[in-house]
Fold each of these.
Amino acid sequence: MADQNKRLVSNVAGNFFVDATCINCDTCRQLAPNSFEEIGGYSAVSRQPVDHEHIHQAYQALLACPVGSIGTEQSGKAGMSAAMSSFPLPIEDDVYYCGFNSEKSFGANSFFVQHANGNWLIDSPRYIKHLIAAFEQRGGINYIFLTHEDDVADADKYAAHFGAQRIIHAADAEAVPDAEWVVEGLERRHLADDFQAIPVPGHTDGSMALLYNEKFLFTGDHLWWNPQSQTLEAPTQRVWRAKALTASIGKLLDDRFEWVLAGHGDRVKLSHEVMRWQLGALLDRRHAVSPSVR
């Protein structure tokens, strides 16, 4: 739990606060953008929530925080209980955001897909009883798709509990040396009904995106939405190879999808046409900065 003695001075006065253990992973700002902002390299409470919706979002952020750096001055058992019950958080159709982000993956988001032919976990949240029970109620987990080596977290524990197959690219397989399913090469792969793996090397050699039902693209750290600029973005730091990353963005231009669901960074829903335009604009920006990556 967060420590009031370590409360950041950038927090506004009031019940919710962030302490100095914050790793600035962006989880709270995604879940409760009305209350949390980045200030001085950390997240902080810039506006105390006052209505039911924003208070609920703040408690969701508190629970999802991977390092427990969000706290409250007053006990709020009812609010905590309601926030706990909301996870996994419905996104659309049969797709959910897991919450309970893991410090092992620097607070990366993970997702759950409930499917008639077997459920999927995309990257891994913390291994906790609440999520185990929630997944069991929805039929368990058959497959765990790992977008890249950084966001494995507690995948091995979920795989052991549910007897799930872990899927990872060969280039990142050292992170899961006993993975049941290793994807080779750079060609896209049909994995199961409605699921397609798309290798997108760049952030890491073995980064992959998962396309579900030609509607949802799970991107790991390859692609995300920036709500401030209202643009799709891709990493410029901690990149295995920039030229490969730009080429990987281009690979997605002919795919149909409406959602980008990122490991780090915001998720977004756009029409297929607008999504394709955003991808093209992102490619143009990267080419303008580094013409040699064409």
Amino acid sequence: MAALPKSIRNVDELETLLSEPAERTIRAMRGLQGDIIVLGVGGKMGPTLARMARRASDLAGVARRVIGVSRFSSSRLEQQLNAWGVETVRCDMLDRCALSKLPDAANVVYMVGMKFGSTGQESLTWAMNSYLPGLVSEKYSGSKIAAFSTGNVYGLCPISTKGYPEDSPLNPVGEYAMSCLGRERILEHFSRTNQTKMAIIRLNYATEMRYGVLVDIAQKVFSGQPVPLSMGYLNAIWQGDANNMSLQALGHVSTPPFVVNIAGPEVLSVRRVAEEFSARFQKPVQFTGTECSDALLSDAQMSYGLSGRPSVSESQMIDWIADWVSRGGESLSKPTHFENRAGHF
């Protein structure tokens, strides 16, 4: 990969950087047979992941279709994906008839899920997060499937442990996290019964300039809002690194599913991160509450053994985000609500 820039000037540069494939990803795409379909491509991470799959396949010299599926409430996103060489299909995947008509593909990246707005819409949350994976597992029973999950399935982790590894007991807090565990169990069931090779990716937390936990903290400091400390610690990983690791997971699928954490290597203190932004903005920082002795933390050492350590450090992300926020860079205006300890989103 090219040397990292000191500053990310605009969205075009950002999306190019987020979709830049690592050499290991190019090798992984060279080793895959067949097309790639990304279900739920319209989310925050999907567009750059699909673009990375396209770029890596081209660099690997592999002719394949990369297809993105979403309801596409924004036609602009659909046009952007097409310009990047990603085919698009509009589909409400809870419609069984529409789902059955989706193109076949040897490789599936499953990114569909519901988190924000899940409180008050619990039945839809369970349908999206636990019922739909079964339908997709039936449709793509002969494919390799890399499915996104979340570190929330572990529940709150004592800070002293530095994060839960993949073989830890699962203890989800709140209906969102419970429905995500439901997704994992349904996928595991169909992996075992249909011998479908799968990987389950427990992500915790992907970050770029327009959204993410670090962006939430930066925006509060910049605007003079107090930073909550009750969820006082976190993991954060550059979305480009998460994209690379997730695509490489297609090379590690198994029956029953291969489970891998994707997260940043450090346990970050919310207080210290806020103070870093305060220094860069030259603005005072306010806090509310006090740190608890546990948080949502994942140990991602296994993923580093497979994919290498993340290429973008915590300090680099803070530098970029501080510069972006101070210049009034674009925001998705989708706070993560990372401070919520009761699992209500």
Amino acid sequence: MTPAPVRLEVEATLADAAIAQSLEKARALWRIRETIPEAQFTNVKHDVSVPVSSVPELIERLGEVLGKRFPAAEIYAFGHVGDGNVHYNVGPAPLVKERAAVNRIVYDVVAALQGSISAEHGLGQLKREESAQRKDPLELELMRALKQALDPRGLMNPGKVI
């Protein structure tokens, strides 16, 4: 059975774009783009995914729940929403000390929307324990089997995630 296609309507105008008029200005735009991740280090960062049709609900629900728990929360949601991957970062810097509580809220809403706590950046060490609790045991076993097939001698990031 093929799922029904999802249609997202987006309205954009040329006023929403920045077009470099010179090589110097193009380089300046790239500097801005390349420094965004550095500027985000003072946030609680997430790389999550949900079904494309659930992206608006993810952003709305998380905004409501996090706003109630942390009234000063600032949300920086961006990314690859066309395929359901969202970089959902929460600031300002003082919330970093509340990382565990922020993560729990984000991951619970993602799970409720049938999503994943990892998207294109993978699990990483910070999500090691969380993935063991949230991933299906079969999924974890398949990940271990794939790791074994690709790295039978355990040379690539030994003991890091799996």
Amino acid sequence: MRKSFWLVAAGLILLAGCSAQAPADRDEGQQSQASMPGAPDIPITAAPGVAFNYRYAFRLPDAKIAGVQEDHAQACEKLGIDRCRIVGMRYRVVGTDNVEATLALKLDPAIARNFGKAGIAAVTAANGMLVDAEISGEDAGAAITAVDKQDGSLRTELAKVEVSLASHDLKSDERAALTTQAAELRERLRGNGSVRDANREALARTPMVFQYGSGALIPGFDARSPLRTAIGQAGENLVGSFGVLLVLVLTVLPWVLLAGLGYAGYRWARRKWPRADIEE
């Protein structure tokens, strides 16, 4: 019992310490927000011909997500559709204190980096934080150059096939083979045209996705961090276990005492009336 008492006392002290540390953890979370880096500083001119793709993930209080998402959408709309377009938007309540949302945009490449920085600033002002940032790039300019070079060879070959087809001395099977070859060359040229258009679009419009989330996902961000939750749950389990043990002891103890008294009475009777006396 003495050991159980000290275990319970230690658990209560641990729980009290966790509660007392909550303000300090919030301060640490605010400091971590202030020290979080912004969007990587990559000038567009440093990578000509590269099509960038921006993705940012934020964590905010669940009540703030809708407002921040709307602020980002309005900032895009103010730029006009020639410089920024909203191509997707979602808001989803996952649980009581858990909200997920996304906002997908396409921007003028020249303003994409600064727009991302302004988006981070809006999140920070709403007591949120940047938790992930990814800027990927694809060398669209090189892809266009490769397609143009390939097109030159395809057009030269197609021109030769068309000259052959213009001849009146071709046999039917030869004409059929050249016709099939010409169709294949034209199909490859159309495919290259689609690749070229897609890469030009990538250079002209930069995709950007904002992802928003709330909940107990980041240690130190709020009072619902996983570490504090685990410690609190451990303390609750310890107190609960002690309660169950106490109930069992109080339930079984009277019977144990009764059995002990019966056994003591039996031993006393054996000493007072030995078996030999009883047999006589």
